Amino acid sequence: MRKKTETKKAVSKKKTKIIEEKEFSDDAQIKKKVTKKTAVKAKKESSAKTKKVSKVKKMSKKTNELKTDKVKKKSKKTEDIKPLSCEEIFPENEEAQESSSEESDANKFKREPKKTYKGTLLENKVYIFDKTDGEEVYDYGCFGKIKDDKNELSLEEALVLAKRNKLKIYEAKKELTIEEFYEYACLQDKEFPWKFTVYEELRGRGLLVRTGFKFGTHFRVYARGVKLKRGPKSVREHTKWIVHAIPENYTCSFPELSRAVRLAHNIRAKMLWAVVDDEGDVTYYEIIRKTP
């Protein structure tokens, strides 16, 4: 009986050991599975964190690079654009400007000396015989008339160019002063004093002024900016005003007025009478023909 009980106890002990070993192995396997799952989760979380950190770093790098590029561009702009002083914008005199240009090569816009042309006085005209000079004077503001490779200037045109330091007038190889030429022109034409006053005043307004001899008046005037050309003309390029210069004490008849006004209407222009007073001021009067 004792032996049976001892064998039963030994068998029960072995069974309990096997059960405990199984439970221990099962617990170990469960623990291993749990640890694997937590490790995978930890790895995923760490990788996500590292990705976020890398993205933040990349964004910070990009922003820093953009900022540095903007700073560089601004620095380049500030280097290229330099503020100018008042002396550079408004030079006090030409001598100071020339000296500054000689000292530094940066000032490349040195003012060139004004070109003056040579004109020869023959009776009541001034001729520029050089072909290129004549064309340049004509292109300057439609001064003169190109004929046979020379430019033919009226007395009024020649005096205006002389006063602008664009023309030197010679008579028999002698250069005439402005006063001498003015006296000569007054001897040639008794109406020259008020004709020249009106012509200079109109040119000072920037208007194109030509002779009005074929219309029986002193001048025909075009709108500002018009340049004469050959061939068909637009409406803007037609004569806009016919101007007749007269002194303040001038008297005329009504038929003379009517003829001038009728002529202006025929060429679709306005007739202006330019009255010059003793002080040299010009007043313009327009005369219009009205029918009932």
What would you call the shape?
extended
Strand coverage percent: 15-25%
CATH architecture of the largest domain: 3-Layer(aba) Sandwich
Major sheet strand order: 3-4-2-1-5-6
Radius of gyration: 51 Å
| Low-pLDDT segments | 73-113
In percent, how helical is the residue content? 40-55%
Description:
The chain folds into 3 domains: 12-103; 118-189, MutS, DNA mismatch repair protein, domain I, CATH 3.40.1170.20; 190-292, 3-Layer(aba) Sandwich (Trna Endonuclease, Chain: A, domain 1), CATH 3.40.1350. Helix content is 51%, strand content 17%. It has 8 helices and 11 strands. It has helices at 2-80, 86-89, 94-103, 131-141, 155-163, 178-188, 192-204, 254-266, and strands spanning 117-122, 125-128, 145-147, 150-153, 167-171, 174-175, 208-211, 219-222, 241-247, 270-276, 282-286. The strands form 2 sheets. It has a 6-stranded mixed β-sheet, covered by helices on one side. Strands 7-8-9-10-11 form a 5-stranded mixed β-sheet. Helix 8 links the parallel strand 9 (241-247) and strand 10.
Write the layout of secondary structure elements.
Blueprint: H1 2-80, H2 86-89, H3 94-103, E1 117-122, E2 125-128, H4 131-141, E3 145-147, E4 150-153, H5 155-163, E5 167-171, E6 174-175, H6 178-188, H7 192-204, E7 208-211, E8 219-222, E9 241-247, H8 254-266, E10 270-276, E11 282-286
Parallel strand pairs: 1-5, 9-10
Antiparallel strand pairs: 1-2, 2-4, 3-4, 5-6, 7-8, 8-9, 10-11
Summarize this, please?
With 292 residues, the chain is α+β, with helices and mostly antiparallel strands.
